[in-house]
Amino acid sequence: MSGERIVVESAAKRYGEVEVFDELDLTVRDGEAVCILGPSGCGKTTLLRSMHGLIPLDGGRILIDGSAVSRPRRNVAMVFQHFGLMPWKRVRENVAYGVELAGLPRATVDERVDRYIAMVGLGGFERHYPYQLSGGMQQRVGLARALALEPDVLLMDEPFGSLDAQTREILQDELLGIYQRGLAASGSKPPPAMVFITHSIEESIALGDRVVVLSARPARIREILTVAIPRPRTIASVIAHPSFVELRDRCWRLLRAPVAA
Ligand SMILES: Nc1ncnc2c1ncn2[C@@H]1O[C@H](COP(=O)(O)OP(=O)(O)O)[C@@H](O)[C@H]1O
Ligand SMILES: [Mg+2]
């Protein structure tokens, strides 16, 4: 069916005796932001890295744009929990890295790097090294590097998980703005899809059109909640929305409910 950007079909993964997930099914549509919420160690990173083609599955398959993923693709970008920056490269070189690998013309690389560094608010820091930046700024670099690829699929693995609460909220708001502008600007292209992993209930509701709640390992989908909070959103507008408290309580209960026998 058209509009299905990512299809996870009966995905199974194990590490030796450790069953990470089995028979996992999930579809992410064009223009959709899906947040995956689950307890630590349940297999979220493994699932996301499988979507990226970094980890082979033991069963089932993952399709992006209708074909099975077996290696990272140019139109899919990842933002890592621990930023994943190259410490010996400056901000500008870190942001440029992916687009350079994609083999785009120099002028396009330069234009994109400038534009996305400005978009994440790092203008003036191009020549800084990662160690000279705060955690929040380092993750802005990670975000700019992914966005500069102008991906059709943005995979985010708890990107704000190690930041302090205030920095985290600022970056959530900025990501909401960037994603919503991306949706608006997609033009003739199908709008981008985002898969955002988190263990924060509030973050999953704020950013997601749907929230997939996973159980503890082996990860199973406990429930998929639809977040009917209109975009454009801000963190403040989400928290003030009448459905927020109910969604939060539902997620809270699902995460803490004992695993069914
Ligand atoms: N490369 C690996 N080798 C062996 N076990 C792994 C490996 N990667 C992850 N695991 C195990 O798989 C489970 C899921 O890990 P992970 O996907 O990182 O969880 P999450 O991101 O939800 O915290 C954990 O029990 C973890 O210890
Ligand atoms: Mg993880």
Ligand species? adenosine-5'-diphosphate, magnesium ion
In whole angstroms, the N-to-C terminal distance is 35 Å
Radius of gyration: 18 Å
Q: Pick out the low-confidence regions.
A: none
Q: What is the CATH homology-level superfamily of the domain at 1-75 and 154-161 and 192-261?
A: P-loop containing nucleotide triphosphate hydrolases
Order of helices and strands: EEEHEEEHHHEHEHEEHH
Q: Main sheet, how many strands, which sense, barrel?
A: 6 strands, mixed
Strand segment tally: 10
Q: CATH first level of the domain at 1-75 and 154-161 and 192-261: which class?
A: Alpha Beta
Overall shape: globular
Percent in helix = 25-40%
Q: Which CATH architecture of the domain at 1-75 and 154-161 and 192-261 would you pick?
A: 3-Layer(aba) Sandwich
Q: Helix count?
A: 8
Name the average pLDDT. Answer: 94
What fold name stands as the CATH topology of the domain at 1-75 and 154-161 and 192-261?
Rossmann fold
The proportion of strand residues reads: 15-25%
Task: Give the spatial strand order of the biggest sheet.
Answer: 6-7-8-3-9-10
Which structural category fits the helices and strands? alpha/beta
Brief characterization of the structure:
With 261 residues, the protein is of the alpha/beta class. It has a domain at 1-75 and 154-161 and 192-261: 3-Layer(aba) Sandwich (Rossmann fold). It has eight helices and ten strands.
